[in-house]
Design brief:
By secondary structure, the protein is of the alpha/beta class. It has 9 helices and 14 strands. A hairpin with a 5-residue loop joins strand 9 and strand 10. The protein is globular. It binds D-malate (MLT), manganese (II) ion (MN) and zinc ion. D-malate binds next to helix 3.
Length: 309
């Protein structure tokens, strides 16, 4: 199985269009140790020809242009794409807006939870993906589903499971408990190559690492995990936004309940942070936080990074 990080940043990207934080200023200036990043998505393929996207970011057009494997194959006909399916982990703007880039009457399949399919159905702009060409298929929770699109079996199955998290920002209900969050609002995905059984996890949004999640991840070969913030208060301290990491539905990397500490005994062979917010000090290759993450066995995902499994 081949996996490519299309975008390693959280919503907003790096640099973010309106952000003057130290990291965004540094990457704009081309400072050493800083690399620009697009918004959150992966691509995966069992055969190297047909691809499943994991999330569709607002930067998808740019990501496809930067990825030769996702270009229309030479000789494949006037209109063609290796992208046969998209699986969504939630309904956040940074994970669904790229579906609009995939208009132009191309057949493929969209896989998501019932909650996210309902959010798409309620937004008529997504009807630009004509139902007779673009199938919308519910991902069951806790059972693997073989992925197909445009008449092609992709040779991978996706097992979706509820991840601790929060309903999409634009769907928050201020008057409801937990902002109206329900099961299926945030998914983790286990992607399995059907021919070999090789599997990895993709969890770009996760509010906490509870016992159930820890047990699920124990001994995994590869995990791409939510690296949004280093510290609960970093956006507040940098004067960017008055929200903590927990309020946004993201576990922090550092601290006693953070992902580095929580993964310490999980024996995950390869751990890669994705969905990294522009405020996060790990984006500075010379920071002590980058050194600490690397020392704990974590890699910091980057756009174009390829992993074979
Ligand atoms: C998040 O990851 O918290 C969301 O992408 C926030 C947003 O939709 O802007
Ligand atoms: Mn996000
Ligand atoms: Zn910034």
């Amino acid at each position: 199985m081949r996996i490519r990080i299309l975008g390693s940043s959280a919503g907003g990207g790096f640099p973010q269009w309106n952000c003057n934080c130290a990291n965004c200023r540094a990457v704009r200036a081309g400072a050493p140790g800083f690399s620009a990043r697009t918004q959150s998505a992966l691509a995966v393929s069992a055969d190297g020809e047909n691809w499943l996207l994991l999330n569709a970011s607002p930067d998808l057009r740019q990501q496809i242009a930067a990825t030769p494997q996702l270009a229309p194959p030479i000789g494949a006909g006037a209109r063609a794409s290796p992208i046969k399916a998209v699986a969504l982990t939630n309904g956040d703007v940074d994970h669904v807006a790229g579906l609009l880039t995939l208009r132009e009457a191309q057949p493929f399949s969209v896989y998501a939870s019932r909650r996210v399919l309902d959010a798409l159905a309620a937004n008529r702009i997504f009807d630009i993906l004509a139902p007779n060409l673009v199938a919308r298929i519910e991902l069951p929770l806790g059972a693997p589903l073989r992925i197909e699109g445009a008449g092609v079996d992709l040779g991978v199955a996706v097992e979706a499971f509820p991840a601790p998290g929060k309903v999409a920002l634009y769907l928050e209900d201020a008057g409801a408990a937990d902002f109206g969050t329900q099961a299926g609002d945030t998914l983790g995905l286990r992607i399995v190559e059907t021919a070999t059984g090789d599997a990895f996890f993709y969890i770009p949004g996760c509010a906490r690492i509870d016992q159930a999640l820890a047990e699920r991840l124990k001994g995994a070969a590869l995990v791409f995990f939510d690296g949004t913030l280093w510290h609960e208060n970093e956006m507040i301290e940098q004067g960017l936004m008055g929200k903590t990491g927990s309020r946004m539905g993201h576990v922090n990397i550092g601290g006693p309940d953070g992902s580095i500490a929580s993964f310490a005994n999980l024996e995950v062979a390869r751990k890669i942070f994705v969905h990294i917010n522009n405020s996060n000090p790990v984006l500075d290759a010379s920071s002590k936080q980058r050194a600490a993450a690397n020392a704990a066995g974590w890699e910091i995902g980057w756009d174009g990074m390829e992993v074979a499994l």
